[in-house]
Amino acid sequence: MTTITISYPSKVQRAALTQEPVWVRWALIGLALAFLTLFLFIPLVSVFYEALKKGVDVYFAAITDPDAVAAIKLTLTATAIAVPLNLVFGIAAAWAIAKFEFRGKNILITLIDLPISVSPVIAGLIYVLLFGLQGWLGPWLAEHDLKIIFAVPGIVLATIFVTVPFIARELIPLMQAQGTEEEEAAVALGANGWQTFWRITLPNIKWGLLYGIILCNARAMGEFGAVSVVSGHIRGSTNTLPLHVEILYNEYNYAAAFAVASLLALLALITLAIKTFLESKVSHQKEPIKKEN
Questions:
Q1: pLDDT at 166
Q2: CA 272 to each of CA 140, 259, 268, 269: distance values in angstroms, whole numbers, following the listed order
């Protein structure tokens, strides 16, 4: 009878098998840093450099211009409407998808992902087709003196459409990983639906929910394509911050364009910092779930 001896590699040998040589690691790190410097850091620094190039007075004059202030207000208004609506929808959709089985579940998931796969410009054109003067509902809207396209409602609708997936797609995997045991235990102890949601579900998803809200907020403020189609580019009325930047740049008013663009860049940096903080919280939240499983 032949005895086969199996020898397993030691811890040092396993580490050697799963690690690249030092020069390969440093080369990859250097390549990544060079790429980030060329395509991220330098453009970001150049935005603030060009914004402040002609002095602080010119910078503040650009961002306090009445058209710029109107663009800021419209951007904040559209965001303030779109984010809460997507918050409610995202929680409801994620809860239904993660906690229940029902007919049409895959269709709902597909619809949530639709704004990611469809170009924002096409989304804007769809709203023009529906609500424009020559659109399907255009004559009825004109008859009742209701204006959606080239007005604030159209901008809000376009912003809602492009930001639909962010909260729902963040919560769905988190809720699926958590399972339904705690909710079932709460119901067994006599809790109703609202009590279960407020005391069990919401505390378990709070960091992931905040993370989704931050991403949704950033996309809402920075959206260009869909909003550009439905806005009409009316200065002081239907221009959001990205559209105002485009108009200033096309008019060769580079200092003002970069000054307003720096507000969006600053928003991106703040969003990145909050996103990094929330990512750490979400990862800590998921670790106990993995250990239990």
A1: 93
A2: 44, 20, 6, 5
